[in-house]
Amino acid sequence: MLIHSASQLLTLAGGPQRGHALGTLGIIEKGAVVVRDEKIVAVGASDELKNAYPDEPTLDASSCVLMPGFVDPHTHLIWAGDRANEFEMKMGGMDYLDILAAGGGIISTVKATRMASMETLIAQTRPRLLRMFAHGTTTAEAKTGYGLQTSTELRLLKALIALDDESPLDLAITFLGAHAIAPEYKGNPQGYTDEVVNTMLPMLKEWWETHAPRLPLPFVDVFCEAKAFDLEQSRQVLTQARALGFPLKIHADEFANIGGASLAAELGAASADHLVMTSDADIAALGKSDTVAVSLPCTPFGLAECHYTPARKLIEADAILALATDCNPGTTWNESMQFVIALACRAMKLTPAEAIAATTINSAHAIRRADTIGSIEVGKQADMLILSVPDYRQVGYRYGTNLVKQVIKRGRVYSVDVGYYRTA
Ligand code: NIG
Ligand code: FE
Predict the structure, then answer these.
(1) How far apart are CA 230 and CA 393, in angstroms?
(2) Closest ligand 1 atom, CA of 109?
(3) Helices (H), strands (E): how many in the chain?
């Protein structure tokens, strides 16, 4: 298939974009891409590729931006129930961490999730995944973490593997058994940390090798926060995970600065995520590392808080900046990377070009898949978007509606545009 005449083809070619290199879109005007099977086989000017591939079936992208599919590198995609009641409480003035300490928050979703069957979990997660796909996310990271006990965490892993198999969207799976202190260990965070380190992680290794040997090992993540896992407990979780061969992620500095970002850099984690209260020393550590700084601006937005990731400081420090939704039932239920871009531009002063690079090639690197996705380059997986706008700056400028016209996933074209009325 020859996709041609795109008013702007954004290639994002050249690998992850560090520091001030962020925002290198690699624009080809009147651009074209040739796709065969699941891969990109040619990228260039429409005239040239039409001549070189005269017999190829065509797809006209005139007046449209053609760009890589969004990669969402941080989601808590799978859970049961909702927390609309807590949203109302938070908007009435209650604090997120106080709700958690009172047995609500993450723990209330844990209760609902533990009671849900595998079928229920899949049925409730599927529409979220499909909405993400319709909004242009072609690969998403997805964490467990609403089980906090071996049996339910395993059910979440199985459900995520099943959803990855059935849906066009690809999932990169993360084990977040250390998402909160399990209710059975209330008041004994070290006890639950020991359970994760000594029982859950070795069990995960064995289970994965037996049940999912064809899939890459999952990431292991920890909620490093004063009221969850402190720095020492986070270190214990991540050190054990690393010893077992798992790639690492961390939730750091969402509410308080306790050193999680530097820990991530020290341990060679793939990413450190949230980074709202991050200190200058932590920013410098990220800037010198290959740990991607993943900012989640929808989280403070969702909580109606005014502190956002110091994104310009991270860029200045030469860090690799990426963006994600953090989609979850508590702090931010948002499925659209387009909205993330709109918010990142306004709240963190990113340019539209920087935000696009942070949601494609850099977010692919945050899940260590930048060698196969995140840009439009020969040999890469054909994961692309045709947007119903002619200029990339419309992304971010416009928000609240879907600018995606077609999603191309592994070379297959999915239409999502609503350009007409239909009566029943
Ligand atoms: O990334 N911080 C921890 N985890 C989620 C929130 C999860 C929840 O409230 O259910 C986050 O914001
Ligand atoms: Fe999160």
Answers:
(1) 41
(2) 10
(3) 17, 16
The response to whether residue 300 sits with its C-beta less than 6 Å from ligand 1 reads: no
H-assigned helices in 244-336: 260-267, 280-287, 298-302, 311-316
Helix (H/G/I), strand (E/B), else coil: 60: strand
Q: Which ligand is nearest to the CA of 86?
A: 1
Q: Which of 115, 248, 111 is nearest to 182 (CA)?
A: 111
Assigned CATH topology for domain 70-366? TIM Barrel (3.20.20)
Given the CA of residue 100, which atom of ligand 1 is nearest to it? Answer: 9
Is 70-366 the same fold as 2-69+375-423? no
Question: Which homologous superfamily is 2-69+375-423 in?
Answer: Urease, subunit C, domain 1 (2.30.40.10)
- Alpha carbon nearest to ligand 1 atom 1, residue: 326
Going by DSSP bridges, is the β-strand pair 412-415/65-68 parallel, antiparallel, or unpaired? unpaired
Cα 280 to averaged position of ligand 1 atoms, centre (Å): 24
**pLDDT tens per residue across span 310-325:** 999 999 999 999 999 9
Q: Is the pTM of this model over 0.70?
A: yes
Q: Both tokens of residue 147?
A: 């089980």
Q: How confident is residue 103, by pLDDT bands cut at 50, 70 and 90?
A: confident
Are 164 and 172 within 8 A, CB to CB? no
| Angstrom distance (rounded) from CA 295 to CA 34 | 33
Ligand nearest to the CA of 180: 1
| Nearest in space to 348 (alpha carbons), one of 411, 299, 303, 393 | 299
Report the distance separating Cα 174 and Cα 172, nearest Å. 7
Instruction: List the domain boundaries for the chain.
Output: 2-69+375-423, 70-366
Q: Which helix (H) or strand (E) holds 21?
A: none
- For ligand 1, say whether the CB of 236 is within 6 Å of any of its atoms: no
Does residue 299 have its Cβ closer than 6 Å to ligand 1?
yes
* pLDDT (0 to 100) of residue 74: 99
3-class SS at 87? Answer: helix
**Distance from the CA of 57 to the center of ligand 1, in angstroms?**
45
